[in-house]
Structures are given as C-alpha cells and as structure tokens.
C-alpha cells in the first residue's frame, strides 16, 4: 500500500461515526463490512454459583444462535486447577450426565473413595475447543462481587487478564469508583481492551441513580438482567432501571458534563436445567453488537461507541440518527405487533431531586424523586418502523420497542419481549462531552 492510499484508508477508518457525539449521527445496519453479533455478558458456572460446566454452557449458547459469550463468575477466573465432587456441585448428577453425553472423550474424572470427582476445564481449554473465527467467541470475564454500606456491589469486567479482587470502599459510590479504577489500571498495564459494567443496580436496592451517575469511567449498566430477583422494574418505593437510566442521562448531559451511559441486557444465568421455578435461566437478555469482526477488540470498540442495542426478544434491522431524527426499524416476526416509544428529556425539565426520608427526616438509601419530565415518552408509534423528529430541545432521546408477544420465559411475570436502543444526544445537549 503506498502512502497516499494508506492515508486515505486511515481517513475512512477515522470517519466512522459514533453514537456518543451530538449531531454526528449514526447508522446501525448490517452493511459495508459490519455484522450484528449477538452476545451474553453475564454468565455463571460451576466455578462459582452456577449449576453447570463451562463447556456445557458454551454449547448451550452456541446452539442458541449466539456469537459471543462472556463468563463472569464471582471473584474467580477459570485459570487454576480445580477438581469438584460431582455430588456436591450445584448441577449434581444432571449436569454430570449432560457433560458425559456431550463431551464423552473429554471429561477428566477420578474416584476418591466413593466420591466421584471431575476436573473443571479451564477457560483457555474451553475457548480453544469452541472459538471459531467469525462464528463463535468465548471471552474471559469476572463478576467483581463487592459490598459497601451493607449492599451488594457487583460489576462485570470483560476480557480481563488477571483476577481483580473486590476493591472495597466506604460508600457505594466509592466502591464502584475503586473497582472501575482497578479495571482501568489493568487495561493500561496490559494494553488489552477491557471494560467494566455495573450490574443489576436494584439487586438488594444497592445502587441509586445519584451514586452511579457520578462515577467517572463507568459508562455501562444493566438496564435488563434476566435474574428473577433483581427488581428490574423496581417496587413501590424504588424506581425501575429504566427510570434510573433516564435520571442518570439527564443529569450527566445537563448538569455533570459527563458522557452518556449505555444500557445492557444480560442473562445473569445460574440455572441451566429447568429445575427450580423462578430460576435464573439463560436466553432472556442479550446485546446485538454491530462490529467489523468477531474479536474482543472489535466488540469492545463498538460497545464503547454505542454501536449496539439491547434485547429481551425483539430484533432490530436499523437504528439511524441524524441531527434531525432518530429512526428505528424492527426485524418483524410473523404475528407480532410492535409499539415503538421514544423516551427522552427536554432541556426545560426540572432536574432537582428530592431525597426520600425516614420518620426522623434522614435520607433513605433510595434514588431521589424527580419530575416526570425526566424520561418522558415523547412519541408512541405502532408498526414495524418509526421515526422521531427532534423538536430541538431534547437533551437525549432513546427508543424502547415492545412486542405484542409475551416473553416465553420472563424474568418478571408479565414481561413482553422488548428491545432498547442506546440514547443519542439531542440538539439541546452540549456539543462536546468530557470524560
Ligand atoms: Zn451479581
Ligand atoms: Zn451474576
């Protein structure tokens, strides 16, 4: 390649638009060397409190049309020698029989007295067996499982190289921040792209919008988690994750001068054998990432640029934004009808939050209450596609698409299949954002 062609080539690379800057626009559609890759970014196994072996879980996702999967066991990487007693594993005989059936030549076992033991295959072994360029990719992750103020603070790091111990902190805010710093430090030290997301903020109602919004370097959180005990939609006192998202977006753009936060949908799978009801089964929530290739580097680059959407069942064909409008097209399924809602906040919205206090007037550990103008539904459309034209005063706009089809295996009773686009900065957002 001569120098001129090389320059032109790099110029086109640099010209790829991102979703994070105001008015630049984005077009998410499978064309011109870009492919949608479906992945789950929250997975438990026998390495912590899941009830199946890594290789059996990898097989499940491969057979269910996923292209990537991140293993995120609690405070452990599958990179050490470990033997487990079959009778004492969460999956017991059920998981063992499936393992033997699917991988007859591969299981390493030994008998100690009357106890049958199996060696847990390590991440590099499983990845070597399953990874296929362009088709399927296993990524090493970890659920950094910390605590602060008596609350569980869980954060997933993706493409991690070395185990990150929970960093602790005096407050929820400080603990999230300390763990983000630890991931950033490892990323810098290794030169390997990795990133961290805040898990299930409403699990134990641990994380409030006010704490999360101020953490610099935290740009991802779970707007949907398939575990039935994480209160995605909140309760009488606590707002749901979408409300938390809108509060964070409005505050970050209008008051804090911080980048927008992206919303992920994940499984948080623990139960792979349909044993208990209301279990945390795989296949409920995922992301569709538009990337130039199926590598951790390309996926992370696209995620960080907002080139993805999140789903609990609805597939999208196109998400396109310009300085004038935001357009969404659904990959429609026969017999389903779609409601496309555009949600956003206008610059006139009152951003003042009021703490919820106890009988003695002390603020409770709950997200503040705010005006309904934060996260208002700006437009509701029916059909397989819809476009929203900016009025000019929007700080940001995002779309939520809901199918008429009830979720076949819902995280919360009554859920319908949905998809969530990432927010786009609106005409009223400051032109530049700072990290
Ligand atoms: Zn967790
Ligand atoms: Zn988890």
TrEMBL record:
GO terms for molecular function: 5'-3' DNA exonuclease activity; 5'-3' RNA exonuclease activity. It comes from the Bacteria. Residues 1-22 form the signal peptide. Keywords: Signal. InterPro entries: PHP_domain (IPR052018), Pol/histidinol_Pase-like (IPR016195). SUPFAM superfamilies: PHP domain-like. Residues 401-435 are annotated as: Disordered. This is PHP domain protein. It comes from Aeoliella mucimassa.
């Amino acid at each position: 390649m001569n120098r001129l062609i090389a320059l032109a080539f790099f110029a086109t690379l640099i010209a790829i638009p991102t979703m994070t800057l105001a008015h630049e626009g984005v077009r998410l559609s499978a064309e011109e060397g870009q492919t949608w890759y479906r992945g789950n970014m929250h997975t438990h196994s026998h390495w912590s409190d899941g009830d199946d072996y890594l290789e059996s879980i990898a097989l499940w996702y491969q057979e269910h049309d996923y292209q990537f999967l991140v293993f995120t066991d609690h405070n452990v990487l599958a990179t050490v020698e470990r033997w487990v007693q079959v009778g004492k594993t969460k999956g017991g005989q059920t998981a063992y029989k499936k393992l033997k059936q699917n991988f007859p030549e591969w299981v390493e076992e030994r008998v100690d007295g009357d106890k049958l033991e199996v060696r847990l295959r390590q991440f590099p072994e499983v990845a070597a067996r399953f990874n296929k360029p362009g088709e399927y990719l296993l990524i090493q992750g970890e659920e950094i499982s910390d605590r602060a103020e008596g609350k569980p603070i869980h954060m997933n790091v993706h493409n991690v190289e070395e185990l990150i111990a929970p960093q602790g902190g005096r407050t929820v805010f400080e603990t999230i921040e300390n763990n983000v710093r630890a991931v950033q430090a490892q990323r810098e030290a290794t030169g390997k792209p990795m990133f961290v997301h805040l898990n299930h903020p409403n699990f134990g109602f641990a994380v409030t919008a006010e704490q999360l919004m101020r953490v610099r370097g935290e740009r991802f959180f779970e707007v949907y988690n398939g575990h039935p005990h994480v209160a995605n939609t909140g309760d009488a006192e606590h707002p749901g994750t979408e409300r938390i998202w809108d509060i964070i977006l409005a505050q970050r753009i209008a008051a804090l001068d911080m980048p927008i936060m992206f919303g992920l949908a994940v499984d948080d799978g623990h139960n792979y054998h349909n044993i208990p009801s209301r279990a945390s089964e795989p296949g409920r929530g995922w992301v569709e990432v538009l990337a130039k290739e199926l590598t951790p580097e390309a996926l992370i680059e696209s995620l960080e640029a907002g080139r993805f959407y999140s789903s609990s069942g609805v597939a999208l064909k196109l998400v396109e934004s310009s300085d004038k409008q935001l357009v969404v097209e659904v990959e429609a399924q026969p017999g389903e009808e779609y409601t496309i809602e555009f949600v956003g906040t206008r610059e006139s919205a009152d951003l003042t939050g009021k703490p919820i206090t106890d009988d003695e007037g002390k603020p409770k550990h709950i997200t503040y209450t705010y005006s309904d103008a934060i996260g208002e539904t700006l437009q509701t459309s029916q059909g397989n596609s819809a476009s929203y034209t900016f009025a000019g005063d929007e700080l940001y706009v995002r779309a939520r698409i809901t199918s008429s089809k009830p979720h076949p295996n819902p995280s919360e009773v009554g859920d319908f299949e949905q998809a969530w686009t990432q927010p786009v900065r609106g005409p009223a957002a400051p032109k530049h954002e700072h990290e």
